[in-house]
Fold:
Amino acid sequence: MQRPLLLLHGAIGASDQLRDLADSLVTSHNAHLFDFPGHGGSKMPEAPFSIPSFAAALLDFIKEKGWDEVAIFGYSMGGYVALYLAKYHPDVVHRVITLGTKFYWDEAVAAKEVQMLDPGTIAVKVPAFAESLEQRHHPNDWKDVLQRTAGMMLALGRENTLSDDSYKTISKKILLLLGDRDKMVSLEETLNVYRSLPEAQLGILPGTPHPIEKVDVGLLDFFIRRFLNVGP
Structure:
């Protein structure tokens, strides 16, 4: 039986952003989409957004499906959640691929990222983006999604959920991907995690910025297939 491949979206995103990738992978992998709580119209949780709570929701989803083990592709925040799951629930994780995942957080980094999540500023300066967020998260309030995400980032800035030492005990095979034009995630922080992970590989996507909509699906498909199809 083919092992499921879960595709995880990033912060303030939703699973629909990965539908083209899922369609591309369908010929070789049993790909599934997943919306984190409060995203893509899924039920808004009572508790604040956090990496551990998102990982718990993902674990529940895996168990509900009756899957013993899954491979995971995680974009941005999705990659962080995937690595958290690989550390604390390794029994359900086969391999992990991340793309554009921000690993380094401190209060200054968090404050900078939160500045870009102000609903009022977005509504005035980028109304088209505000409209897309409203449609993406309906019936949830997109402004609530942004504010809760900001709270999560500030919490990460105060205490990073995964420390440098956390990665040293993740024994799964991991592929870290980064776009060479990514302005949110640095090569340095990606290399630091790559060097800490016992079974890591590193890939750089040429001509690729951070937004998932600007990533070449065919190129990403190639990296994912190659990594998942090599070895046991």
Remarks:
- Residues 142-158 form the longest helix (17 residues).
- Strands lie at 4-8, 30-34, 70-75, 93-99, 173-179, 200-205.
- The chain is about 45% helix and 15% strand.
